[in-house]
Model the fold of this input.
Amino acid sequence: MWKGLLSFGLVNVPVSLVKATRSKNISFNQLRESDFSKIQYKKVAAVDGAEVPMSEIVKGYEVSPDRYVVISKNDLEAIAPKSSRIIEISDFVKIEEIDNRFFDTSYYLLPDQGAGKAYSLLLKSMAEENVVGIARFVLREKEYLAAIRPTGQAITLTTMRFADEVVEVREIENDLPANIELTDKEMKMAKTLINSLVTNFDAARYKNEYHAQVLAMIQAKAEKEEIVTKPVDTSSSFVNLMAALEASMATIKQNESKKKPPRKPKSKTA
Done:
């Protein structure tokens, strides 16, 4: 989808950019209930409801109620970032210094023919130093900030949000709980529960169950099978905190006991 150079210092690595993720969203069409005819969308003027052809539509930015600055295609092209085939790393930083909120979409950077050694040099050096490269690049006429980092045997590029695109905690602090008193017993129980659930992260363990259920429902409806859904009990949204912690621990202990193999009976001696 994109070919260019990954540059750090005076080293240039010819690379190709390919997506590292895939969308698993299920798309639905909107239909008229009476005859299942597809719904079409038309662009109409708010003032009179008349349909407006694309040739008559312009971009406008509202500066005050019903007052717009009209922006033409030429206006945007004049200030568009210049197309470039270079991803230039300007800095290296420690991965733990980057807040996860800044990360957006991930891609693989694949070495082009003859670039294997330079690619491997950058990959191994970043991995051993535990650093991430920070770069800028242009994709589809838009400038992006990006994190260049090693992922196994590949180099990945993750587009990043700029600082003013991240909502700071102070902006929502009025909606957060304040002056909450927690007892030592509650803290001890919560920590015990958390520690009992600590494990190594394995993405394969986490399945998109809702996605599978929607596909199964669609398949069943297509085959004219009856679908029965179990209602969700929302009658007790707020429960006693300690009771919930104790019940969680009891469930975990019960599950652990089921996993233990049964004891072998002691052999009787003659």
User: Anything to note?
Assistant: The first helix runs from residue 73 to 79. The helical segments are 73-79, 116-129, 184-196, 209-222, 241-259.
